[in-house]
């Protein structure tokens, strides 16, 4: 036993001092790892994105097109009675009133961000990400078919639409959760190099290609796809008014079919870390043991237990690296604890800011269409940040590390809510119908900027800081913070009325303004150890997946051509 532990200790030490090495330096498409001098003189750049990552982004685009296109008409569908004919001045179907409509909408958002935890457990412990996405995607489309079929005029007249809607809502939310917790880790797993390396550009410049910069680029592109899909509500709200709700639900249903086709057809291209098995039992035992022994997690490493507490070794099924991975994951989850307040600010754009626009002059457009300013700003801004701003900052030695970016996101959210409070004050001091709803645009623009720094970075951080065996679960926990934001939003319903709502905006703005420096003060040291933390890992599972899909020069040239196109 002692020889085994000694050998494990030697391996663990090497893995902790040096990042896990992949054999890409033998391939002409890659270069050697940078030394200390090169880190100080060469600039950091992102690698090209593999084609398989674009396939995963397409899956997310289709799913978000479905989600936003489907949920856009929900309020009118539930609240208002069915009109005598179409086109309709006020579309509706169920006639259940505003309170029921708001309650069901809130439940759908809550349910859709609770179920990712189950999806994360299924993927990490049993099926893996690919098969979990396929399973929950099938469940998702069953719910879509139920909701679409029960929204046809004959179903509305027979009274079958309301139970059909509720059943469809539950099934769709369940399916969505299983996809959401796995698709973003899967897109990042498609990038196969796990350590920095030197590359010489066509210009002759030598640069350091890093996973950190590449993941930042991947998640920027991933979020861009989300927001392009989010524009679908423009089409479905027009369909509900001019044709009927069956057509508004049929379009998202039809759009989801290509997502499943892409999942199936691309199955041989995806790189995926396999499910690890009974990981949650291990996590429970490790945390419980850390409370019993002096020294916390470090004292629970087998190499130390063998010497200090050999009687506990009979319950140990983990190794030293697993302890470091779990500690890193828990640190990430502590960072996520600040996000519910951010999501509270974010949620205003789809709720109270829409009501605010309803008090203003909107011309011939509906007041709920203005929320699309947010995805439009993101679609324009994300490529600028990815191709111009971030590379320029890295060129001058400012890498914009995660905690700093999240802090900026919190500040932009505070500015957005302060601007909303100022707009509400203007409404109270003037005749509302003389104020153009266009004055709201900066509030949506600031929220969009906050997403670039806080939301996208949160996705990136959840992936990077989670161990390979827990990536889906940690991503699900990050998404769960959105659910907690909905709970806070529900708690503020009583003050979301005139004239209290102005002070609600002020309060949310103040809360975010206070959170930003506190967040930086509590977590800024994590930026200093970001690279070292990301290097914690093992060769085993991930390298097996890497070697199975080891990139060749031809793969690299193909991916470059794809990106240039």
TrEMBL record:
<feature type="region of interest" description="Disordered">
    <location>
        <begin position="1"/>
        <end position="35"/>
    </location>
</feature>
<feature type="transmembrane region" description="Helical">
    <location>
        <begin position="402"/>
        <end position="421"/>
    </location>
</feature>
<dbReference type="GO" id="GO:0071916">
    <property type="term" value="F:dipeptide transmembrane transporter activity"/>
</dbReference>
<feature type="transmembrane region" description="Helical">
    <location>
        <begin position="441"/>
        <end position="461"/>
    </location>
</feature>
<dbReference type="InterPro" id="IPR000109">
    <property type="entry name" value="POT_fam"/>
</dbReference>
<dbReference type="Pfam" id="PF00854">
    <property type="entry name" value="PTR2"/>
</dbReference>
<feature type="transmembrane region" description="Helical">
    <location>
        <begin position="503"/>
        <end position="522"/>
    </location>
</feature>
<feature type="compositionally biased region" description="Basic and acidic residues">
    <location>
        <begin position="1"/>
        <end position="23"/>
    </location>
</feature>
<dbReference type="InterPro" id="IPR018456">
    <property type="entry name" value="PTR2_symporter_CS"/>
</dbReference>
<feature type="transmembrane region" description="Helical">
    <location>
        <begin position="473"/>
        <end position="497"/>
    </location>
</feature>
<dbReference type="InterPro" id="IPR036259">
    <property type="entry name" value="MFS_trans_sf"/>
</dbReference>
<comment type="similarity">
    <text>Belongs to the major facilitator superfamily. Proton-dependent oligopeptide transporter (POT/PTR) (TC 2.A.17) family.</text>
</comment>
<feature type="transmembrane region" description="Helical">
    <location>
        <begin position="162"/>
        <end position="179"/>
    </location>
</feature>
<protein>
    <submittedName>
        <fullName>Uncharacterized protein</fullName>
    </submittedName>
</protein>
<keyword id="KW-0813">Transport</keyword>
<feature type="transmembrane region" description="Helical">
    <location>
        <begin position="243"/>
        <end position="266"/>
    </location>
</feature>
<keyword id="KW-1133">Transmembrane helix</keyword>
<feature type="transmembrane region" description="Helical">
    <location>
        <begin position="218"/>
        <end position="237"/>
    </location>
</feature>
<feature type="compositionally biased region" description="Acidic residues">
    <location>
        <begin position="24"/>
        <end position="35"/>
    </location>
</feature>
<keyword id="KW-0472">Membrane</keyword>
<dbReference type="GO" id="GO:0005886">
    <property type="term" value="C:plasma membrane"/>
</dbReference>
<keyword id="KW-0812">Transmembrane</keyword>
<feature type="transmembrane region" description="Helical">
    <location>
        <begin position="369"/>
        <end position="390"/>
    </location>
</feature>
<feature type="transmembrane region" description="Helical">
    <location>
        <begin position="133"/>
        <end position="156"/>
    </location>
</feature>
<feature type="transmembrane region" description="Helical">
    <location>
        <begin position="329"/>
        <end position="349"/>
    </location>
</feature>
């Amino acid at each position: 036993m002692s020889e085994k532990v000694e050998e494990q200790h030697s391996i663990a030490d090497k893995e902790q001092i040096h990042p896990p090495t992949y054999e890409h330096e033998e391939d002409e498409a890659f270069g050697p790892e940078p030394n200390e001098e090169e880190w100080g003189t060469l600039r950091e750049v992102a690698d090209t994105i593999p084609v398989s990552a674009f396939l995963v982004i397409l899956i997310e685009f289709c799913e978000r097109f479905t989600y936003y296109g489907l949920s856009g008409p929900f309020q009118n569908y539930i609240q208002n009675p069915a009109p005598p004919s179409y086109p309709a001045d006020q579309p509706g179907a169920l006639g259940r009133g505003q309170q029921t409509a708001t309650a069901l909408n809130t439940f759908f958002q809550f349910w859709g961000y609770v179920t990712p935890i189950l999806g994360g457990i299924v993927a990490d412990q049993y099926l893996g990400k690919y098969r979990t996405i396929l399973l929950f995607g099938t469940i998702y489309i069953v719910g879509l078919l139920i909701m679409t079929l029960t929204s046809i005029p004959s179903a509305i007249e027979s009274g079958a639409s309301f139970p059909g809607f509720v059943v469809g809502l539950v099934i769709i939310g369940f399916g969505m959760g299983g996809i959401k917790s796995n698709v973003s880790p899967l897109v990042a797993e498609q990038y196969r190099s796990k350590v920095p390396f030197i590359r010489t550009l066509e210009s002759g410049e030598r640069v350091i290609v890093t996973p950190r910069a590449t993941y930042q680029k991947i998640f920027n592109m991933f979020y861009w796809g989300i927001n392009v899909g989010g524009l679908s509500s423009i089409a479905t709200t027009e369909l509900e008014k001019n044709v009927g709700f069956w057509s508004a639900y049929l379009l998202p249903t039809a759009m989801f079919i290509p997502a499943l086709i892409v999942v199936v057809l691309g199955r041989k291209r995806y790189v995926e870390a396999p499910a690890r098995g009974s990981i949650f039992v291990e996590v429970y035992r490790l945390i419980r043991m850390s409370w019993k022994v002096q020294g916390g997690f470090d004292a629970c490493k087998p190499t130390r237990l063998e010497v200090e507490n050999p009687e506990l070794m009979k319950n140990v099924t983990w190794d030293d690296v697993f302890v470091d991975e779990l500690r890193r994951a828990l640190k990430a989850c502590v960072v996520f604890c600040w996000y519910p307040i951010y999501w509270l600010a974010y949620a205003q754009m789809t709720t109270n800011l829409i009501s605010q626009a309803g008090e203003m002059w909107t011309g011939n457009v509906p007041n709920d269409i203005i929320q699309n300013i947010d995805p439009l700003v993101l679609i324009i801004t994300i490529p600028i940040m990815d191709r111009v701003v971030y590379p320029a900052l890295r060129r001058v030695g400012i890498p914009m590390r995660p905690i700093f970016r999240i802090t900026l996101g919190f500040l932009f959210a505070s500015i957005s809510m302060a601007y909303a409070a100022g707009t509400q004050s203007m409404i109270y001091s003037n005749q509302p119908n003389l104020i153009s709803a266009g004055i709201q645009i900066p509030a949506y623009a600031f929220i969009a900027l906050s997403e670039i720094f806080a939301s996208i970075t949160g996705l990136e951080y959840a992936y990077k800081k989670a161990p390979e065996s827990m990536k889906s679960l940690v991503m699900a926990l990050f998404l769960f913070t959105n659910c907690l934001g909905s709970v806070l939003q529900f708690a503020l319903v009583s003050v979301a009325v005139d004239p209290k709502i102005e002070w609600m905006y002020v309060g949310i703005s103040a809360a975010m303004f206070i959170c930003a420096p506190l967040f930086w003060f509590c977590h800024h040291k994590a930026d200093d150890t970001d690279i070292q933390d990301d290097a914690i890992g093992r060769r085993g599972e991930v390298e097996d997946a890497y070697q199975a899909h080891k990139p060749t020069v031809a793969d690299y040239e193909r991916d470059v051509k794809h990106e240039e196109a």
